[in-house]
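Lay summary. Proteins are chains of building blocks that fold into shapes, and those shapes determine what they do. In this project we predict the shape from the chain. Here is one chain we studied, written as its sequence of building blocks.
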Amino acid sequence: MGKWLIRLKGEEFDLEDLPALLHFPELAVVEENGFYYLQSSEFELLTSADEVREQGIALIEILNGAAKLHRDNFQDVSEDGVIRVEDDGGRSHYVYLEGSLTIRSKVRPNLTVTTTNGIEKKDDRPTTIETWIGIAREDKLVADALHFFREDTPFNLYKVYEIIRDDVGGEHAMVKKGWVSKPELSRFTQTVQSRNVLGDHARHASEKYKPSAQPMSLSEAKLLIRGILLNWMQTKK
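And here is the predicted shape, written in a compact code that computers can read:
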């Protein structure tokens, strides 16, 4: 009956990790001859390349958010065309047209476990990212949070905060759970809301929103929201 694939583009540094992190039938990344492809059981229900591309882009957005949550320096991958693979091996390609150097490091995922008799075997349990993506496919709030987290701008980080805040019952509940301290949360919200600090990137244009005495840097804000998001995701399992 054939199958659909979406070719991925991005940096090899990021692409090469995905086959190990996503290897279940529901959602997997496979490497063939130096190219990386996203495949999903959801694609098999679709009949056109346009439908597959639309569904694939939505999945890639969630994938990018989950991967960035898993590894802070992950850089987004994107769709680079749809492939139709027929039963006889024939392929149809559907292509949609439309400099600084960064040094990064990562920890390789461990794909084996050792049994009591010392024999190693492949770990077939869902990876962390597979678990998160599985949750996101069932929970729109999680999907939205990962969607916004993939772009770590102050405005998007605030959207992640809002989603979690509203879901758990307000700022007080987040503080009570130990996910964040009230002073740090105030620093974050006052910084993001202040035009004096962020200019046009601020959440509000009004000058009435006064900045914190110690405005939060973007790296601090990313670390704060990442911690809150990780704690929240634990409650969704």
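What the prediction tells us: Residues 166 and 202 are 21 Å apart (CA to CA).
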